[in-house]
Structure formats: C-alpha cells, structure tokens
Amino acid sequence: MTARNVTQAGRNKGRILLWLTILLSVLLLGFVTVFTARHNPLYSDRDAYGISKYKFIEACKERLHEPNELSLNLQGQSVPLGQALTQANQLRQGERAVVETVATPSQIVQGVQEAAPGQLGLAVPVLIAAGNGEARRPLAQATMQCVYDRTTARANVTLGLGGVQ
Q1: Looking at domain 46-161, which CATH architecture does it have?
Q2: Which residue ranges does UniProt annotate as crossing the membrane (predicted)?
Q3: DSSP class of residue 153?
C-alpha cells in the first residue's frame, strides 16, 4: 500500500462516519418532533371545537380585561359585575373593578375541558379587586367559567362566588 492509498482510505472512513452522524441526527430530530407534538398540552381538535385550546385560553383571559362586560352569578341570578360592586358599596371614588386569574399557567391548561359535545370550557379561580392605577384592593375570590360559543365566535365568561363549580 502506498501512502496515497492509506490517506484515501482514512478519508473514506471519515466520510462514512460523517454521513452516519448526519443520518442519526436526522432520525433523532424526527423522533423528538413526533414525541413533542403528541404530548403538547395545548393541542386540541380545532375543527371539533371551532377554536384551538391556546386561542380559547387567550380569549378567556382577554375577557377578564373587560370587567364591565362580565356578569356575576349571585344565588342563581346573573348580575353585571360593576352593578353588583356598586350596589354593595365596594368601589370607592376613582376605583374600577379588576379581575385577575390566580391560577398558574399549568392549572389553566389543565382546567380546559369539553363542556358539551363540540364545546370547550374553562373553570379557574380569579380574584375580584378594586383598583386605581397599580394599587389593588382585594374584594372577593370567585370562579371564572368560560365557554366558547361557536355561533358568535366569542368566549363567554361568567363569574361565580365561591370555589370552582
């Protein structure tokens, strides 16, 4: 064997190892992608529910930023949140109602369930507070119940006092 043949054989082994490494990397990447996609906690059947689980959660959170449009269930009656707080003299001069979720992101994702056939629902604890600017004064613990209405393409949120119902 000449020196040239030995060098050529060494190069061929290096190329084979390189191609083998590339092939194994592609296979590993494919496996990780498939495994991750199947175990995604935000996966849902968008065609069956009319909305993805992620967009549903975001729509429910957005509705919490509109406290004047939220209703509060009190002893079986639905009352606008602002009206209920005003009648109970809970809002001071210059304050407005603020509703914030107290659930962790994982609790929110796990809280999304099928409310009815073809309909997503979410029930998580929230805090009703009075605030002006950054200052917040807690008023009550409540449960946010959110259901997606396919006909109006809107998340409907109601608040109930007490624990998760």
Answers
A1: Roll (3.10)
A2: 16-37
A3: T
Residue with tokens 């040239």, as numbered in its chain: 4
CB atoms within 10 A of CB 57: 22
| Amino acid (1-letter code) at residue 122 | L
* C-alpha pair distances (Å), 76 with each of 31, 73, 123, 159: 51, 6, 17, 12
Give the confidence band of 41 by pLDDT, cuts at 50, 70, 90.
Answer: low
CA-to-CA separations, 118 to 38, 45, 48, 61, 147, in angstroms, rounded: 21, 9, 5, 21, 11
CA atoms within 13 A of residue 130's CA, in its CB half-sphere: 14
Whether residue 130 contacts residue 91, with contact meaning beta carbons closer than 8 Å, is answered with: yes
66, two tokens: 């509109």
DSSP character at residue 43: -
Extended beta strands in 47-153, E state:
71-74, 77-80, 96-101, 112-116, 119-132, 135-149
Question: What single-letter DSSP state applies at residue 91?
Answer: P
- The model's pLDDT over 69-99, given as tens digits with 9 standing for 90+, comes to 888 887 778 888 888 888 888 878 888 888 8
